[in-house]
Design brief:
With 296 residues, the chain is of the alpha/beta class. Helices cover 40% and strands 24% of the residues.
């Protein structure tokens, strides 16, 4: 299975058409079709359902698309690392992160590095903890910023000095917005919009789960979210109240939304982690050194 052919397959998956992909790749349609047929024969699976004007992926095709994207990302990352072996420190540092305003501590370091090392670039990937740690474990990321509580025992890490505050985002004209803070009792009869990963990632003895009395059975959770931007749109539409971290959604004067903290106060710390025994590229080493200078 050649990298070139995987790129061909990804182009077809992206374009949804062999003809469009062939034009994009500057190949003839018969040549591209033959390459795809050879790939299906090599894998022993049908990857594409060919229609009159377009193609769709089979379940096996979707699986290959995910794997192929990971393989191409790894190849690109490896090429960047070997290019950085030259005397000039150049290349890309790959960082994954959940949503947190505290990430600005990382972006401040990035700005300083790019002033000193203009050939170092950064690729910042946003996602939930499961997605980010999966990419980190596969070697697709150099570092990950993870919000506590989460098991980081298998990683090396540094703890960031600031914490995120939990609260509720709601429409400014809601009755609850008149309160300065939100209690457990306030939430019990409300339609809530929750992060779908909080219960999976928080052990029962964590401060987060203790605040919610060990579970969410007493609450009316009408919707869940992965990343919080769309949750804010649901709140604006009146679907419910978003339980989330402060300073991630616009709650300024020009917004229809407002934030109220939970009471008693509930906060989460953050750690930046990397694989134990990780062999870093020169740019990633520079980044790690700067992290240790600032946070150790």
């Amino acid at each position: 299975m050649e990298i070139r052919v995987l790129k061909y397959f990804l182009a077809v998956a992206r374009e949804g058409s062999v003809t469009k992909a062939a034009n994009y790749l500057h190949l003839t349609q018969p040549t591209l079709s033959r390459q795809l047929q050879d790939l299906e024969k090599e894998l022993g699976q049908k990857l594409l359902i060919r229609g009159q004007h377009n193609v769709t992926l089979t379940p096996e095709g979707h699986t290959l698309r995910q794997r192929a994207e990971e393989i191409i990302d790894m190849v690109d990352k490896t090429e960047q690392e070997f290019r950085s072996i030259k005397n000039v420190i150049a290349g890309t540092v790959y960082i994954g992160s959940g949503e947190s305003h505290t990430v600005r501590l990382i972006t401040d370091i990035i700005k300083d590095i790019q002033t000193e090392y203009p050939e170092i670039k950064f690729d910042l990937v946003s996602g939930n903890a499961q997605d980010i740690t999966e990419k980190l474990d596969k070697g697709l990321l150099d570092f990950a910023v993870l919000i506590e509580p989460i098991d980081i025992s298998k990683y090396d890490y540094l703890t960031l000095p600031e914490k995120d505050r939990w609260g509720v985002v709601m429409k400014k004209d809601s009755q609850l917005a008149k309160k300065k803070s939100i209690t457990y009792k306030d939430l019990k009869d409300l339609p809530l919009i929750f992060s779908k990963q909080v219960e999976r990632q928080n052990p029962s003895d964590s401060d987060f789960m203790k605040w919610f009395n060990g579970g969410f059975g007493d609450f009316n959770i009408v919707a869940t979210y992965n990343l919080i931007y769309n949750a804010g749109l649901m709140a604006e539409s009146g679907i419910g109240y978003v339980v989330g971290l402060d300073k991630l959604l616009n709650t300024m004067n020009n917004s229809n939304l407002t934030f109220r903290p939970l009471y008693p106060t509930l906060e989460s710390g953050l750690n930046i982690v990397w694989k134990k025994g990780q062999i870093f590229s020169k740019p990633a080493k520079v980044f790690l050194e700067k992290l240790k200078e600032k946070f150790k």
